[in-house]
Every structure is written in C-alpha cells, then in structure tokens.
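Input (Large ribosomal subunit protein bL20):
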Amino acid sequence: MSRVKRGVTKNKSRRNLLLQVKGYRFGRSTKERVANEAISHAGAYAFKHRRAKKREFRNLWTLRINAASRTSGISYSKFIGALKKKSIALDRKSLSALAKDYPEAFSRLTEQLKN
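Output:
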C-alpha cells in the first residue's frame, strides 16, 4: 500500500478552522486547539441564545401591551382575558406593534373590550 501524506488536508482543515475564529482575541484566533474550543463554545451559546431571544421578545411584547392597556385603565391579564372571551385572535406580537405604532387604534380596541 502506498504512503499517504496528510499535510495538504491537515492545513486545509486548520485554515478553515482559523477562518471561523477570525476576529477573536489572543490565542483563540491563531492557535488550533484554543480556536476549536472557542468554536464549540460559540456554537453552544448561539443555540442557547436563539431560544432565549424568543423568550425575551415575548416578554417585551407583554410589557408593551401592559403599558398601553394600563393607560386605558385595564390590566394586562384582564385585557388578554377579554380578547379571548370576545374571540379576537390577535397575537401578542401584533398587539405590541399596534400599541407602539398606533396608540389611538389600540385605545379604541381596549374601549371595545371594556364594554
């Protein structure tokens, strides 16, 4: 069997690894072992924070809806309960956008729910 030298493939994998950590500081951007560790941590954080981002945005929408509904004299929980009772199928994201960008339309909606 013929001899296989691994230099080309090894250098290619090293180059690809170091391209992924471009911009990192200190040994993380130049040393292969440290760079590999940095990539695995970065991937784990990226996965975790993609999930956390969804939670944080839902919290933000809730805060906006609560603040806007309180100005009309109704609490968040009563507001959401009234929406469900009247079968108004608006999600929190669109309600938040309505409260932020069109406050007069949101206040009309809350007045309808109060009656």
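The longest helix spans residues 32-71.
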